[in-house]
């Protein structure tokens, strides 16, 4: 009898290596595709206050909705820097489209960091495939924009969560495939105990109320919704009652960096269109490019944009290099970015209106599109009120007697 030959045991299957994150050139190409679609529809979506469905479809198709999803879940594996570059590029064309993208990224960043393994496995591949565009529900009637409280409490039904929430302003809410919602935690004793829950659209009844006719950001289609539904318990994101630490670590930084990038893009796009118009054949013999008033106004606009850009880059550096973002000096920097970007980008475009005057500064049909940019940028100080941030910053400033500058 011959001894059976012992075949070597097959090597254990190695998990397939995740592909590398997207490179800059490939990302720029996909961003250009979305920007081109946005540009085609921007006049109509602003005029009609309608959601940019075509640009969203292109974000789905190009994978941009999965920009921040790690590659092991099928996403592009981009980082905050990639989100910033994309937001600036989209902001140059349409601030509503840029904010829709940046706010979706903010929700994705929270899920990547805080969702439990089951929710990550369920959701991240769907986002990467472009099937889930996420909206944000933090504002509530009565408390306004205050992030860290909620009046509506989550109910419990065994291990399920019962959600019943009125949301007065939800960007893209009628088109979102999922929602991240702040609610008072189940069995909480104070409105400060806030939980973040994720809900698929199919798990909810979504009722819209009222019209959407704002001054600017018209294509953001930020309508009022009433959301109701029952969710499995694992759809709480992070620990119940722990939304505050998510705001410090992810929500706040991503919101302030993302919004600022969108606003900077919009103001940069406006300045670029003005300079092209001034140097174009239509201005020859009509505009005195040596005018000291004009030169000073252009200089001021450029100075404002470079100031915001520098602050944005500094905030990105700090976020990328610090594990703990809670020290007052870091929170102050992030808030300073949001406040400064909101003010300076708006002032830059306002100054450009003065620089070029009625025809190209105030009329809708000018190729400079200053009128549209100015209306959109007016929302920046309101979109999480600068006044609220100043109050927080005053308190934080009192905590830092040495005035440490990061
Ligand atoms: C274009 C756009 C899109 C948005 N999209 C969303 C979204 O998708 N999801 C979402 O949840 N929210 C969204 N928001 C809401 C936004 O984040 C703010 O919550 C909202 O704009 C605040 O509304 P408010 O100014 O009425 O409220 P508040 O922040 O309550 O401010 C009301 C007024 O009171 C002042 N004020 C507030 N607090 C104080 C205080 N303590 N002391 C002194 N003065 C104070 C403010 O300066 C302001 O003048 C969006 C807003 C905009 C403009």
Overview of this protein structure:
There is one protein chain. By secondary structure, this protein is α+β, with helices and mostly antiparallel strands. The chain folds into three domains: 24-133, Butyryl-Coa Dehydrogenase, subunit A, domain 1 (Orthogonal Bundle), CATH 1.10.540; 135-237, Butyryl-CoA Dehydrogenase, subunit A, domain 2, CATH 2.40.110; 243-399, Butyryl-CoA Dehydrogenase, subunit A, domain 3. Helices cover 50% and strands 13% of the residues. The protein is built from ten helices and eight strands. The protein has helices at residues 24-48, 53-62, 80-93, 95-114, 117-128, 243-279, 292-321, 328-361, 370-377, 386-399; strands at residues 134-137, 155-157, 160-171, 178-184, 194-200, 204-209, 222-232, 236-237. The strands form two sheets. A four-stranded mixed β-sheet has the order 1-4-5-8, covered by helices on one side. A hairpin with a 2-residue loop joins strand 2 and strand 3. The chain starts with 23 loop residues before the first helix and ends in a 7-residue tail after the last helix. Mean pLDDT is 94; it is low at 1-6. The structure holds flavin-adenine dinucleotide (FAD). Flavin-adenine dinucleotide binds at residues 135-139, 144-145, 169-171, 217, 220, 222, 379, 382-385, 387-388, 391.
Q: What are the key terms here?
A:
Butyryl-Coa Dehydrogenase, subunit A, domain 1; Butyryl-CoA Dehydrogenase, subunit A, domain 3; 4-stranded mixed beta sheet; alpha+beta; 4-stranded antiparallel beta sheet; 13% strand; disordered N terminus; 406 residues; binds flavin-adenine dinucleotide; Butyryl-CoA Dehydrogenase, subunit A, domain 2
């Amino acid at each position: 009898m011959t001894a059976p030959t012992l075949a070597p045991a097959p090597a254990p299957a190695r998990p397939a290596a995740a592909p590398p994150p997207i490179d800059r050139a490939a990302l720029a190409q996909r961003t250009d595709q979305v920007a081109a679609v946005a540009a085609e529809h921007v006049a109509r979506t602003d005029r009609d206050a309608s959601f940019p469905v075509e640009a969203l479809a292109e974000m789905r198709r190009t994978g941009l909705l999965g920009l921040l999803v790690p590659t092991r879940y099928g996403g592009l594996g981009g980082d905050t820097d990639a989100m910033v570059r994309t937001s600036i590029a989209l902001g140059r064309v349409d601030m509503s489209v840029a904010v829709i993208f940046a706010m979706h990224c903010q929700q994705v960043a929270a899920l990547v960091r805080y969702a439990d393994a089951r929710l990550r496995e369920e959701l991240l591949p769907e986002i990467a495939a472009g099937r889930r565009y996420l909206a944000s529900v933090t504002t509530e009637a009565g408390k306004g924009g205050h992030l860290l409280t909620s009046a509506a409490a989550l109910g419990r039904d065994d291990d399920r969560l019962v959600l019943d929430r009125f949301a007065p302003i939800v960007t893209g809410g009628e088109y979102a495939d999922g929602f991240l919602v702040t609610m008072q935690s189940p069995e909480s004793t104070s409105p400060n105990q806030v939980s973040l829950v994720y809900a698929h659209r199919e798990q909810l009844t979504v009722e819209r109320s009222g019209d959407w006719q704002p001054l600017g950001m018209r294509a953001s289609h930020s309508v009022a919704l009433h959301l109701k539904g029952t969710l499995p318990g694992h759809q709480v994101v992070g620990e119940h009652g722990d939304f505050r630490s998510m705001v410090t670590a992810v929500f706040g930084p991503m919101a302030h960096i993302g919004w600022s990038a969108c606003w900077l893009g919009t103001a940069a796009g406006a300045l670029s269109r003005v300079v092209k118009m001034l140097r174009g054949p239509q201005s020859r013999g009509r505009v005195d490019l040596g005018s000291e008033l004009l030169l000073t106004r252009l200089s001021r606009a450029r100075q404002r944009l470079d100031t915001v850009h520098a602050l944005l880059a500094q905030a990105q550096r700090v976020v990328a290099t610090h594990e703990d973002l809670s020290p007052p000096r870091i929170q102050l920097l992030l808030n300073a970015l949001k406040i400064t970007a909101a003010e300076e980008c708006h002032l830059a475009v306002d100054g450009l209106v003065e620089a070029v005057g009625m025809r190209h500064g105030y009329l809708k049909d000018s190729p400079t599109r200053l009128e549209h940019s100015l209306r959109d940028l007016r929302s920046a100080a309101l979109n999480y009120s600068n006044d609220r941030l100043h109050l927080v910053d005053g308190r934080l400033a009192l905590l830092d007697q040495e005035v440490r500058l990061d």
